[in-house]
Amino acid sequence: MLLPELREQVCTANRQLPAAGLVTWTSGNVSVRDPETGLVVIKPSGRMFDDLTPNDMVVVDLDGKVVDGDLGPSSDTAAHLYVYANRDDVRSVIHTHSTFATAFATAGLSIPVYMTAIADEFGCEIPLGDYAAIGGDAIGKEICRSIGRSPAILMKQHGVFTIGASIKAALKAAVMVEDVAKTVWYASQLGPLTPLPEAEITANHERYTHRYGTATASQG
Amino acid sequence: MLLPELREQVCTANRQLPAAGLVTWTSGNVSVRDPETGLVVIKPSGRMFDDLTPNDMVVVDLDGKVVDGDLGPSSDTAAHLYVYANRDDVRSVIHTHSTFATAFATAGLSIPVYMTAIADEFGCEIPLGDYAAIGGDAIGKEICRSIGRSPAILMKQHGVFTIGASIKAALKAAVMVEDVAKTVWYASQLGPLTPLPEAEITANHERYTHRYGTATASQG
Amino acid sequence: MLLPELREQVCTANRQLPAAGLVTWTSGNVSVRDPETGLVVIKPSGRMFDDLTPNDMVVVDLDGKVVDGDLGPSSDTAAHLYVYANRDDVRSVIHTHSTFATAFATAGLSIPVYMTAIADEFGCEIPLGDYAAIGGDAIGKEICRSIGRSPAILMKQHGVFTIGASIKAALKAAVMVEDVAKTVWYASQLGPLTPLPEAEITANHERYTHRYGTATASQG
Amino acid sequence: MLLPELREQVCTANRQLPAAGLVTWTSGNVSVRDPETGLVVIKPSGRMFDDLTPNDMVVVDLDGKVVDGDLGPSSDTAAHLYVYANRDDVRSVIHTHSTFATAFATAGLSIPVYMTAIADEFGCEIPLGDYAAIGGDAIGKEICRSIGRSPAILMKQHGVFTIGASIKAALKAAVMVEDVAKTVWYASQLGPLTPLPEAEITANHERYTHRYGTATASQG
Question: CA nearest C48 in D: which residue?
Fold first, then answer.
């Protein structure tokens, strides 16, 4: 069996999606790219998260050919592969229909930097991608065209995709995009909101990405 | 005891309703039709979900006569039976008052195909049925008249009914109608929403129902 | 120790409040009246629900005098006692600040019979009581004056009180008033709502209270 | 290892934040001041709550110098220290981005005393602090300037800080500010709200803080 360790990690990450309240029934998926072989490990199509085992994960090459696995790969596989082919820095892609992020996507709205948590985590407005058909590489193209430096993008009338240099980074983006979308949603019903000034966005993002979690974190 | 295996399945499915957050206290019910005998196994009336055992399930014939069981059948039994008598393709019926679906039902609104998840799962607008009295077959008649090809219908000022070729299919529809109602509800407060074009609805539904979960799922 | 069985039941019911999501920290309380002695068993004041033991429950007479117990009784004790003194049919009183019911109370709104679940459970509009000071018997007086035949009342800018012929009935009312308040809240944001006609309210309530949960439940 | 007991308490309190639904991923932090040495024990920066052990806690002096601990202290450490240096009565500080409190903060709104639970717990409007940069002592200064007698303050476009004479008091304020923000949020969508009269606010707060939880609680 190819890539047993990555199968294990991808299986675990997929099962974290329902645990984090980001997916319902079989929607949503996690993939990872193996840096050595270039192969991609992804969730099988249409399976319940709680039943997934590492053995169920599907290994595909960048052309979408299944090179190891008994099940069909996620119907979003082509979108994941397009991102890997065009973004060398991305090692993991996650897709969900999490409620609040998808609500913004369905209303056709991006999420401006209304509070420090968005500046910290995303460093910029969370962008809205155009509507793109599911199944082919249209979604992947729109992600690459519109995601910019954000680790998350809202895909119009569909859901959310996140990317990261690791599974953990992509998972964090998936959790945090829903968390900030939820807070901004509730704030938006209370009155008009104002984005942070650009200098504050930059200062927060710089502190968060360079010093947070280090031994000098409190010196900022 | 008649139909022990179906009693077990119906009991399990009823207990999944509170686990999925679709029901409160004793509201809601699941039934299944036995294809061989034509008998229907349904939840007893007014019992707490967590106390249900397979033995508590009630077996009725299509006229509503209890043929096995010590408890009274659900007060929605006549509605279930009317659907079975008039829809050969239906093997399971589920009724809930799940919050968001019932909110649309209470406001007298159907749920248009505002996003891909609705196209995937329902293939069309989730219809609104007219108000119908509880207890007799008025609800069953309105379901058959108005549900069309959707697996779910919102019943005005009441709740939601779903149907399926299996308990799992009806349960999936009950879970997904609440999930998409929730997302659309949040989207609806952000601004005006636009349904997907008919061609996109058809393309998504065709992909989802014909290729999703198969070994060629990624080829679409 | 007086009334060991009722202490056990009141303790269990109090601990069900956080389990049902109806209370936060120490707010909320359950009491029961012993039909033989007329004594009332109630939650102690200011204790965390998860720490409660039957021994912590406080036994008071109808004048509020502690006749057994080491802790002070709930600060809502006088309200409970006034209800017991003036409503012979009530054996249990419950008070919560559950989110949606309290939102209607805070906005100064009753909850009309917008859907069948309210007709079933309450049989009428869920009334709004005037603001009344906490601590004395003003709340009890307002409950008796305004609750009518409903098992629940919203107390303006405060929370919700429910009554029942048993702890289970009062607890069911506390769970269901929050459940219907939640659904009506979501419905209210979608557009104007219309109460059910009086004849439908009566028919639903009659069916629910007389035949629901019995062996002839499906005959209605 | 310095202050083993306080490390244990601070670790436990930090882990209660996700359990109470107040934080997501690594956001949020709890600290305590040792009354004898004046040292402060605080959560390390950027660590997942579920992985925290007492040994991970960081001990700093009032100048922010790490005196014991292998990890970097929370990026909010300077804010906590400023409060300790300027409020002798405060022994614990907590920071979260809890959804509803942060929604009010993001919309730039304080929370008036619309219901008794706010009068009980806070005794006054929950104030809104001006926007202040994260990392230095600007947040601490704004907390001290604007929190008044409330145990909680909403920091504009950021989140919430609470203070207390004990970890439990600060934690209770963090739980209750989110609970009342949630209820007020839902009430605010139903129509215009009116604060309680000043005399009722005072009466409720006096009863709650002086008699609640005591053996004479029911005498009020």
Answer: D213
B94 in any annotated domain? yes
- The confidence score (pLDDT) of residue C210 equals 83
Residues of chain C neighbouring D184 (CB-CB closer than 8 A):
103, 106
> Structure tokens of C175?
């769970």
- Are C220 and B46 in contact (CB < 8 Å)? no
Best B102, B156, B160, B184 residue to mutate vs chain C (most C CBs within 10 Å): B102
Domain housing C126: 4-211
Q: Tell me whether residues B64 and C218 touch, CB distance under 8 A.
A: yes
DSSP string, B4-42: HHHHHHHHHHHHHHHHTT---TT--EEEEE-TTT--EEE
Confidence of residue D13 (pLDDT cuts 50, 70, 90): very high
Instruction: Please answer whether residues D42 and D65 qualify as being in contact, where contact means their C-beta atoms are separated by less than 8 angstroms.
Output: no
β-pair type (B92-96, B66-68): unpaired
- Could you say which of B115, B182, B190 has the minimum Cβ distance to residue A158? B115
Beta strands across the sheet bearing B152-155: B66-68, B58-60, B40-42, B29-33, B92-96, B159-164, B152-155, B128-129
Eight-class DSSP state of D218: G
Kindly indicate the confidence band of residue A116, based on its pLDDT and cuts at 50, 70 and 90.
Answer: very high
Cβ atoms within 10 Å, residue C164: 21
Contacts C–D by Cβ distance under 8 A: 108
Q: Are A103 and B190 in contact (CB under 8 A)?
A: yes
The CATH number given to whatever domain includes residue B30 is 3.40.225.10
Domain-embedded: residue A216 = no
Q: Give the pLDDT confidence of C148-171 residue by residue, as tens digits.
A: 999 999 999 999 999 999 999 999
Does A97 sit within 8 Å of B117, measured CB to CB?
yes
Stretch A175-202: mean pLDDT, rounded? 98
ipTM confidence: 0.95
Partners of B161 in the β-ladder = B95, B153
Strand-strand pairing, C128-129 and C40-42: unpaired
Q: Flag whether pLDDT at D205 surpasses 90.
A: yes
Closest CA of chain B from A15, distance in Å:
17
Three-state SS annotation for B38-58: CCEEECECCCCHHHCCHHHCE
pLDDT computed for residue B18 by the predictor: 96
> Hey, what amino acid is at C85?
A
Residues of chain B that touch chain C, judged by Cβ-Cβ distance less than 8 Å: 24-27, 45-47, 60, 64, 66, 70-75, 77-78, 97, 99-100, 102-109, 131, 133-136, 157-159, 185, 188-189
SS (H, E, C) D60-117: ECCCCCEEECCCCECCCHHHHHHHHHHCCCCCEEEEECCHHHHHHHHHCCCECCCCHH
D-chain residue closest to A121, CA distance: D27
Q: Which chains touch A (3 or more CB pairs under 8 A)?
A: B, D
- Is the four-CA dihedral C196, C199, C200, C206 of positive or negative sign? positive
Closest among D168, D131, D169, D128 to D148, alpha carbons compared:
D128
- Say how far apart CA A81 and CA B172 lie, in whole Å: 29
Adjacent-strand bridge partners of B67: none
pTM over 0.80: yes
Q: Examine residue C154 and state whether it is found in any structural domain, yes or no.
A: yes
Give contacts of A159 with chain B, Cβ < 8 Å: 115-117
Contact C175 B102 (CB under 8 A): no
Residue with tokens 């060398």: A88
For A203, the enclosing helix (H) or strand (E) is helix A198-210
| Cα A68 to Cα A61: distance, rounded to the nearest angstrom | 10
Per-position b or e across B86-102, b if 16+ CB within 10 A of its CB: ebeebbbbbbbbbbbbb
Of B25, B70, B75, the CB nearest to C207: B75
Give the model's pLDDT for residue C214: 62
Number of domains in chain A: 1
Q: Is residue C119 part of a domain?
A: yes
